[in-house]
Amino acid sequence: MQQRPGRTILTVLSIVIGVTAAVAVSLGTATTRNAYKAMFALATGKATLEIAAKGGGRAVFSDALLEKVKAVPGIKMAAPVVDRPGSMSFGEGERVRLRIMGVDPKVDPLVRDYIYMAGRPIEKGYELALDEGLAKHLELPVGSKVKILGNGRLGGSKEFEVVGLFRIESGVGPAQLGMGLMPLETAQGHFNPRQIPKDSIDRIQIVTANETKLIEDVQKQIAAILPDTVEVHRPAGSTQLMEDTLKSSEQGLELTTLFSLFMAAFIILNTFLMNVSERRRHISIMRAIGATRMQIAGALLSEAMLLGLLGTVLGIAAGFGLAYFGTQIVSQAFDVQLPRLIEVLTIWPFVKGAVFGIVMAFLGAIIPSVIAAFVSPLEGMNRIVRSPTRSFTALLLTAGAVMTAGASWAIFECVNGRLPIETATWAALPLLFGLVLLDTAMLAPQVALAGWFLRLFSRVEATLAHKQILRNRLRSALTVAVLFIAGCTGVGIANSILDNVKDVHDWKSKALVADFYVRAMMPDMATGLTPDLPPEVGDDLEQVRNQKAPNGKPLLETLEGTNLFEIKVRRADQPTEDALTAIGLSREFSNEGVTFDLIGGDAGKIAGQILDGGIVIGSVLSQKTGLKAGDKLPIEAKTGIREVPIVGVANDYLVGGMSVYIHRKYAEEWLDAHGVDGYVIKVEPGNFDIARPLIDAVAKKHHIIAISQVDIGRAIDRFVGGTEWSLWLLVMMGFVVAAFGMVNTLTMNVLEQTRELGLLRIVAMTKTQVRRTIMMQALIIGCIGLPPGLAIGVVIAYVLNLTMMESFGHMVGFSLHADLLLYTLVGGIAIVVVAAWFPARRATRINVVEALHYE
Question: Which comes out higher in pLDDT, residue 32 or 422?
């Protein structure tokens, strides 16, 4: 290791890369998932049962029901809750979304596990307690004044005083969720609109004894005293919508991690094999002076374990750092405050990274150690020793064909729904390995073809390069495999993401056609819900609408109020706990030619069909229920299960595609979904610049958000642009990793060619020709590793798009991105050439006299 520090560093780096990927992705995924678990842990607390309105409606029953529930035997505690998304403004126009829970200060601490870290508990009036993590992030100490928008009978934006900062007792704080607590009576007045009773609540959370039988008995007794519009069930802490939204992302992360680990494994194996090849003479001399085979193998394994341990430690540190910066970037990109890593740390990501690093170092050293143990002492007579070569073509072809066929069958079954979709992620790994084996088996004819092509430009150098690559087929095959993996994984993932980006743009151009969207805040990413707007907002916007433009026409073409609300989807014979949670969006749909990114239904008739009581559902909801246009969607309504005709299925990126679009009058009549939480505004052509300052003035007056279609387009383009840059960085990093293997292979080839290059220099071969010979070797390896990898990458992209059917509810359209293939090929070849520069430079510095003493 001291004699070859460069080789040692490359070996350690190959281990660091794999460990970093394992740790960083595990921590990043755990952070996001833990964030939403924390939200529901605070929302449900110790509650074992929960009473709520059927169909996910809000505030439809009076807290008078609370006393009846408390009288049921077996109940330890029953706590009323008003639970709403809210918008909090503070400082100089700063605003943050948060979840407001109106609770009884005396009872709630017995239901939820939180403690006050500063200040005091809420008591009455306009007092607010904030999560400690959120308050610190926003720099809001106890005593701060904030404003919270409400749509209740008290109306408008009211000022609250922050009297306390709390933390979940378990130590997992939901800072990213913006949790706030206020007194129950205050929340009822602030959020309950005039059309419902003042003392209405959203839920009653019940703590019973832990015995399952007792809980079931209590649930039956409670159900007997409830009105028809209310139901009792276990707390809905499963975060169904977030599971659906994160599913495809987690599959992508897992697939990327597996491919990264796979490529790192090849580099580790290649590095250790070359390490032994370079030291065969040294090993043979040790054998000649009495070292046993076990001593030789033990020495190499000990070295591998030492390097594996060092690489693992560095990889764990790098993975933690990458996860830290990754969560920061995600927090800023999505306007959320993710928890600090220290809050979600477990030992398992580090165990996973450590196991990978140590195991791969061990496996990477096993084969070289066995080879080294059988090195003959006679090999020490030569300065350069070649390892014996054997033909494994038949074995590689057979194994590769079997693995490729088996993995392809598994993926096909996943796409057709006969196997879990998660199986496709794991099947991708043997598929890739099988393709690598097939590519490796065809090494000789591919080298011959590439050598023939390059001889057109440099006959002598290309011929020498051709022969040298085939001198050690195993080493060359491993280097080709690394480039092959880098090419197919990079192009496969990149092409699939670009298809997804195109799908988003198509959806945006078809679905987001209004000129302005007015809301109290952007919808919550987990639930899609947002607080209602006070009636005064609608009155002010109506005044804007009635203003006359210079042409004498009204300033606005349409002004439609919208409302987002939860909908429970289940058949009459299904139990309540099996219901799917969807998000309904109601509006008047008055504008002519309602626009959706339809994948089912008649676009020409859909506007009239919605006015007649039809609904349009998101593609993911269609996928989960197996229902399509022409079928009926069973939903929990005020009067029981109601089957509503589906007139269209739309590609929809809101709330994970679990969406239901319905006309306002039917939402109010069937689901009791009242209120307005946003406005969709379309301006008369030519009046945009006149209308914008007037709409902005209304938004500023009420502390709400008015965003134009142009602003939304820019935000999406900005996000997509960042995604694409991250994508190219990911692809290039794969090739940089492959470059490590290229440097190793070419450096080893230079050492083995020392005598030949010295003789060629004596017979007048110039340094330029020597350098060109090494470059030709790199180009041949690049030409036989990259193009097949890019071709297979296109196939992988198509398969990835197929596997997204369950996550998106439709197959993302496949496109062949020629520019991606061209840029990747040129970039990959450029990296290969740069990697060859170091060994080529070394080759030109060979001392001719010393070279004559070789062999």
Answer: 422
